[in-house]
Amino acid sequence: MNPDDSAPDAPRATPQVPPSLADLTRRHFFGRCALGIGNLALASLLAEGGRPPRTEPPPSPAPSATGREPLEAKPTHHRARAKSIIYLFMAGGPSQLELFDAKPRLNQLSGQAIPPSFLEGKRFAFMDSSFKNKSTLLGTRRTFRQHGQSGATVSDLLPHIAGIVDDIALVKTCATNLFNHAPAKLFMNTGSGQFGRPSLGSWVTYGIGSESRDLPGFVVLQSGPRGPRGGAVNWSSGFLPTTHQGVPLRGSGDPILNLGRPAGIGEEAQRRALDTLRELNLRRASETGDPEILTRIASYEMAWRMQASAPELTDLRGESDATLALYGCTRDTPSFARNCLLARRLVERGVRFVQLYHTN
């Protein structure tokens, strides 16, 4: 007699059929396999787990796929002569026709009607009505002279620049058909009049990184009554990782809004919270392979370090009165001159690219 024949009927468990490997996607395999590539990478990234909470930022907060920090300085194919760039962009300043690009022919035609050959087959935004009324040409009222061994032509508006023309480069070979304000500014900063292209500072930090670990590699300083036309697209990273976009610093008060530690939150508690966020983000990065998650981690860690570095940067009490006079600024009043001094302090601290915008 079969013992099971006398037992009451019991529900039988349905055997679980393991899924076929053919039914698993590559992403699921890498993410869920106990010894998969994703978990091996995660184990390496979280190697410091289990230790007491840090009071100092981790040495490598957001390694990229190559094992580098996103903004770590990269070697160049030849020995570099320049270490950093300070880019001055003064919107609304005199044109090159008043500064270093003399136009003798324009001065000869000054006061005369515009020749038809200049207008045929062309359209000029905001000026069609003037051209239809046969407006006259206007030559410069500035005086131009040649200076230095190079014989560079400079107007009387730039007497100090005239004294150093042999130490600078004047580029006169650039041309564009973008003459409206916002597209022209975008073109000047990204090389294109259309949105979506990386700015010059983004390309520089993407290519060679930055020497600074406690400050962003690309910093933007603004002065004047308003920002540049086009706004943040002028320092955007475009299709590059967002860790390479420009970081605007304010000229007064906190350099970056909400940078300070919240009231009631101690340093150790904040560090524990950042460590937890970092581990969660690294787990997600290992599952998805999304590089923007690494950018987010790097941003959190940079903000942590900037809580100490940014206030020290903008504290000008260590600058002498003579230095402030040379720059034409005061310690606490926001201005273009003060931003020039801050730009010097930024590159002294290893920042790779500093861009100053002034509008008036």
**Helix/strand order:** HHHEHHEEHHHEEHHHHE
Category by helix and strand content: alpha/beta
Rg (CA only): 30 Å
Work out the strand percent.
5-15%
Largest sheet: 4 strands, parallel
Helix share bin: 25-40%
Characteristics:
alpha/beta; 12 helices
Structure description:
By secondary structure, the chain is α/β, with parallel strands linked by helices. It has a domain at 85-95 and 193-359. The protein has twelve helices and six strands. It has helices at residues 3-6, 26-32, 37-45, 104-109, 128-132, 159-162, 181-190, 200-208, 267-288, 291-314, 321-327, 336-348, and strands at residues 85-91, 144-147, 152-155, 218-223, 247-249, 353-359. The strands form two sheets. Strands 1-6-4-5 form a four-stranded parallel sheet. A two-stranded antiparallel ribbon has the order 2-3. Strand 2 and strand 3 form a beta hairpin. Helix 9 (267-288) packs antiparallel against helix 10. The longest helix is centred in the last third of the chain and has 24 residues, at 291-314. It is globular. It starts with a helix and ends with a strand. Mean pLDDT is 78; it is low at 48-63.
Q: What's this entry about, in short?
A:
The chain has 360 residues and is α/β, with parallel strands linked by helices.
Write the layout of secondary structure elements.
Elements: H1 3-6, H2 26-32, H3 37-45, E1 85-91, H4 104-109, H5 128-132, E2 144-147, E3 152-155, H6 159-162, H7 181-190, H8 200-208, E4 218-223, E5 247-249, H9 267-288, H10 291-314, H11 321-327, H12 336-348, E6 353-359
Parallel strand pairs: 1-6, 4-5, 4-6
Antiparallel strand pairs: 2-3
Helix pairs in contact: 3-9, 9-10
